Amino acid sequence: MSSLRKDFTPGQLEPLLKKNRMDGCIAVQVEASETETKSLLDLAARHEFILGVVGWLDPCAEDLEEKLEQYSGFPALKGIRHTVYDEKGEFLLEPSFQRGMRTFCRYGLSFDLLVFPYQLSSAVTLVRSVPEQRFVLNHLGKPDISEKPSVQWINDIRELGRNENVYAKLSGMVTETENFQWQKEDFRPYLEIMVETFGTSRLMFGSDWPVSTCAATYEETLGVVEGFFQSFSEGEKEAILGGNAMRAYSI
Questions:
Q1: How far is CA 69 from CA 27, 44, 125, in A?
Q2: d(CA 230, CA 232)
Q3: Domain residue limits, the chain
Q4: What's the pLDDT tens digit per position in 85-141?
Q5: 173 three-class SS
Q6: Which of 44, 164, 174, 228 could covalently link to 50 via disulfide, CB atoms 3.0 to 4.6 Å apart?
Q7: Alpha helix locations (H) across the chain?
Q8: What mean pLDDT do residues 165-173 have?
Q9: Is residue 172 within 8 Å of 206, Cβ to Cβ?
Q10: Is the pLDDT of residue 243 over 90?
């Protein structure tokens, strides 16, 4: 993880985006911290290429609606993420958490699902219970890419994808490999299941930069997705590399 032990700034990212023909990005939270959320919103206000922010607010907080009123003056706030795999038990099924999802929905905010494979079945129950909310699955549910897709992961992903309110990011794959060693073909069986399940209208590329630098450059991470979709239509490729994210995050 040594590559992460330094600061990463908009000034470092913008040239990478331009080099790889990206018009902009969405900045996604790391810490369960409103301080970080405010910092990301400040960066978005100062850098036009940061088109939106997926920040953090406690979904179970009793004063959640009051907090969202305070943030309603920040148009760059497009969604919320909470690191569910840090929680114990069936956190996704708690009434207070599901109440938070409905509150985010009323404010037009998407919710990024960051879960481990064993939590996918609970995620299915969650998205069915709040069909009006837009969800974005992160990192394919974090399967072990160095192994073949498990039957359980396949079944859970298929169940999740049956819900039209769920999008999925093709992200975080290079770092879910043993010792961060991979070949492009390692990702094919997983990407095939994702396309079979979500089609090309609910999938989006996510760089997971700078975490991805542990295992790949920005170009290599993008190349995994571009290589897999090279035979798809131009419209499908444009959707996966940007259009679907704009719809999911109301940009």
A1: 21, 19, 28
A2: 6
A3: 2-8+84-248
A4: 778 768 999 999 999 999 999 999 999 999 999 999 999 999 999 999 999 999 999
A5: coil
A6: 44
A7: 10-19, 34-46, 64-71, 95-106, 120-129, 151-161, 188-198, 218-228, 234-238, 244-248
A8: 98
A9: yes
A10: yes
**Interacting residues of 130 by C-beta distance below 8 A, sequence separation 6+:** 98, 101, 102, 105, 165
C-beta separation of 160 from 166 below 8 A: yes
Q: Is the pLDDT of residue 197 over 90?
A: yes
Let me know: does 41 contact 29? Beta carbons within 8 Å.
no
- Rounded to a whole number of angstroms, the distance between the first and last alpha carbons of the chain is 33
Is the Cα dihedral 147, 84, 250, 160 positive or negative? Answer: positive
The distance of Cα 101 from the centroid of its chain, to the nearest Å, equals 16
Judge contact between 218 and 20, C-beta under 8 A: yes
- What is the reported pTM? 0.96
202 in helix, strand or coil?
coil
Give the count of beta carbons closer than 10 Å to the beta carbon of residue 95. 9
Give CA separation, 13 vs 105, 132, 237, in Å. Answer: 30, 34, 22
53: phi > 0 → left, psi -120 to 50 → alpha, else beta; which?
Answer: beta
Supply 103's token pair. Answer: 């509150």
Return the closest-CA partner of residue 120 out of 135, 99, 110. Answer: 135
Of 150, 146, 129, give the one whose Cα is nearest residue 185.
146
Q: Does domain 2-8+84-248 have CATH number 3.40.50.2300?
A: no
